[in-house]
């Protein structure tokens, strides 16, 4: 079967030549193992961090080894005591392979209630949980507040904005390009700002004339700085991601206005979704209901073809995705 490997560690923005396609031979599944056929594989911004060789909350990818990430697969064959059967749908950390053999205990059987498969890697998956716990547990979301979301047309941001609306907040989203901004309005955002249109600080002041109480930041850099200036006294900043900085070759200065956090009594809090597994049942119950009732739209961009995984990943840094970026590797 084929696999996609990390061949060299990127400096700055990753390129296609960081990856290579290789042929490997699999042994049949042994005791407790299953052979799986990935259907959908997820590409995520955090993978950029794993491409560097430095300690972090997830270990770096090994060079010459397949990339791994979240995915959904069908069980093709099961060894003794695997507890899974051919035809089962499973999810978990999968290697970028067209077929694979893995210990069954590393996979979770997917429970489907009529949702499209891709929802399990988007609003019902890791990115949905991130939006949910980031707003509620980390951000202390309260009805009536003004919430600002950056990266608002992406997987985490689009769900965060929709959850904040459902909680009775006024929601301002920031995204790149007219098409994304139009989509944010369709999703119910009260205001949507295109950061590519220039003068972001001014556009944000106009979009949030009464300031911001809760800021859910997916982007960092200039957008973080512009948003800090708008924070109301006692405001909270949820540091979810900083994609504008992931490809930086040297640390950048700033936010230059951080000292205003003192007078405005701001709380800036980072978090990692993996620490909130205990919240999954409550989150899943709420999100399933919202999806069924059509109150959360599950936007996704699905790139077709296993060999296009690197292209899809690189697209995250160009904003080629609306909602969750996924790659379809094979039929359901
Ligand atoms: P997205 O679906 O939002 O995809 C990435 C988006 O980022 C792109 O579509 C693009 O949108 C935007 N972007 C890329 N480069 C830049 C840039 N230089 N400046 C501004 N915007 C940029 O990804 P996710 O929803 O999966 O992740 C969003 C953020 O949340 C990331 O920072 C990620 O690391 C973080 N995250 C954090 C987690 C945690 O546990 N703390 C868990 C999951 C995600 P546009 O066209 O609008 O520029």
Automatic annotation (TrEMBL):
Coiled coil: none annotated. The keyword Transit peptide does not apply. Residues 12-327 form the Enoyl reductase (ER) domain. GO terms for molecular function: oxidoreductase activity. The keyword Oxidoreductase applies. Transmembrane segments: none annotated. It holds the Pfam family ADH_zinc_N. PANTHER family: PROSTAGLANDIN REDUCTASE, PROSTAGLANDIN REDUCTASE 1. This is NADP-dependent oxidoreductase. It comes from Aciditerrimonas ferrireducens.
